[in-house]
What we know:
Blueprint: H1 47-63, E1 67-73, E2 78-83, H2 95-107, E3 114-123, E4 128-136, H3 146-152, H4 160-169, E5 174-175, E6 179-182, H5 201-204, H6 224-238, E7 257-263, H7 267-275, H8 280-294, H9 300-312, H10 334-344, H11 348-356, E8 379-386, E9 389-397, E10 403-411, H12 415-431
Parallel strand pairs: 4-5, 4-6
Antiparallel strand pairs: 1-2, 1-10, 3-4, 3-7, 8-9, 9-10
Helix pairs in contact: 1-12, 2-7, 2-8, 2-9, 2-11, 4-6, 7-8, 7-11, 8-9
Amino acid sequence: MIAGCGGGGHSPKPSSDASVGAPIPHTETATATTPLHASPTPPITPPELVALRAALTSALNKGGPQTGAMVYDLTAKQPLFELRAGVGRPPASVEKLYTTVAALTELGPNARLKTTIQGDGHLGPGGVWHGNLYLVGGGDPTFGDGAFNTAWEHGYGPTANDLVHQLAHAGIKSVSGWVIGDAALFDELRGGPATGYAPDVPDFGGQLSALAYDHGSTFKKLNPGAFAAKELVLTMHGAGIGARPLNRTLPAPTGTTQLASVESPPLHVMLKLMDVPSDDFFAEMLTKQLGVRFGSAGSISAGAQVISQQIAALGLHPKIVDGSGLSRSDRSSPGEVVDLLKTLWNTPNGRTLAASLPTVGLDGTVENIAQHTAAQGRCIAKTGTLNYVTNLAGYCTASDHHVLAFALMIDGPGNWTAIQLFDHMVPALAKY
């Protein structure tokens, strides 16, 4: 959380001195040089607001005409700055703010995703399971190997070892049939709309699947679900349980028996794992989860529709085609993003959203933005980056402890050039 986020008890900054612009009283002794209906003096803009607007305007002008921004003072409840705030642009990973809010609304911050082993058969003498075992995926993006999870998921996420311990406790020593991955909860499309739903390993770091292991890893011709079953079998071998994996996925038949289960960390933890490093794989896995639970299918398109519906319920109508923002067909304006942040601020879901964001100058995708400036440690923000699209949106605590919601969107310049402009704009917010 950012320092001083509570800040609601501070009085708004005055737009002018109390005595400036007051009408001259109507008295019986008024003369011709003291008109009865004097025009009020225009309000004086406070110097700190003049400085903020000048800094933002200068930086955005350097970014070119395809820029937009909005800044809103949540404490004073007034807009501070707008430039092309209503123009829709590719939000890039700022889209994950919408995904985060929809997931919190539909699933709740403590929701967990389950991965199970289902048995089709029975346990016989000598600990032999007569039949097949099915590793059934529930769309958990954190399931995998313990060492991988320690390195990539900060130690969060269930492991194959957790499941194998339960099989051993149940007395299973070997499996006569196959160990089969079941990824039927989601569709079989491995990527997002940006690649025509083909695998997009450079952006996702793996392939999408309802049964994913080590961030959607695959091996040779094995799909993610079959790879997960193979890794489970290797872990079973390490525990002395004989088994063999099937090299393709199949849905578990009805009437199976649950033999083991593990759960993901709660959603609020997964959102932090998504938003701090801007993890596209997590975003689309959660989007498919929303689609299968609250929409028409376990697909990105169905999930994006659920996200759109939830955001529309807040009075906002950005164009949402995925959950990660990788598609350039996504469209959102700085005004819509700030309206979302304004609506969510100081609500239960808003506090969880804020806790999921990285801190400027300190961690995640904003670690190198505005380092060693007034903004370091005082602003939290979601980045959004595609080639020649560079966005930043979040909250900043100003010098008088007012909390500002902001969205800065720069199209055109190279990403590094735009980040250098953020290095000027974000400290200006913190100094306000």
